[in-house]
From TrEMBL:
Residues 109-118 have a biased composition (Acidic residues). It comes from Candida oxycetoniae. It comes from the Eukaryota. One of its GO terms (biological process) is mitotic cell cycle. Residues 90-118, 145-184 are annotated as: Disordered. Keywords: Cell cycle, Cell division, Centromere, Chromosome, Chromosome partition, Coiled coil, Cytoplasm, Cytoskeleton, Kinetochore, Microtubule, Mitosis, Nucleus. This is DASH complex subunit DUO1.
Length: 184
């Protein structure tokens, strides 16, 4: 495309009169506006490229947060397992042996009773259920504590990430899908 400053001005009046200072000033202004326009086009292209790069960074950050979340879950599960193994009070095989001994004792003492076999099995199952429920309560408390700690760490990490995004100007205040809090 030919630059507007290089397009010759044609007309009878122009051919008969020399170039006036007004026309020269207009041509300079046109050249100046053309340079400004090209600079603005370059600026627009740069802003578009930066926007694309920021989108890539945002996606990478989201993926990193997801990977960190999964890694945290794995570490917490490993820590929980390690704590249960190291816990001297928690011994499932010992608890099972004690329960079996109680069952054997109850069978020996109840031989004289006229209860039928189904009642014995029901009592045995009820005792096992009580033992398992108490163990389950202990494990649930431990899991609730772990989940609460994880939720607190996650929310703190999200708040820090959102604060950093706001500082960098990456956080959209309306409808940002990367902002989420774990609900209790």
């Amino acid at each position: 495309m030919a630059s507007p400053s290089k397009i010759p001005i044609t007309g009878e009046m122009h051919q008969t009169q020399p170039v006036t200072t007004r026309e020269t000033a207009l041509e300079k202004e046109l050249q100046h506006l053309t340079r400004i326009n090209s600079t603005l086009c370059l600026l627009h292209d740069s802003i578009f490229k930066i926007s694309q790069d920021m989108d890539k960074l945002n996606k990478a950050t989201s993926n990193t947060m997801e990977m960190m979340s999964k890694w945290t879950k794995i570490i917490q599960q490993a820590n929980f397992t390690h704590e249960m193994i190291d816990n001297k009070q928690w011994n499932p095989s010992k608890q099972e042996k004690q329960e079996q001994e109680r069952i054997n004792q109850s069978e020996n003492t109840n031989d004289d009773d006229d209860d039928d076999e189904e009642d014995k099995q029901l009592r045995i199952l009820a005792r096992k259920l009580i033992a398992l429920e108490s163990e389950n309560m202990i494990l649930n408390r431990s899991l609730e504590r772990e989940v609460s700690e994880k939720r607190d760490r996650w929310n703190k990490a999200e708040e820090m990430a959102n604060k950093r995004k706001r500082e960098l100007g990456l956080l959209n205040t309306a409808g940002d899908s990367s902002r989420r809090k774990l609900n209790g």
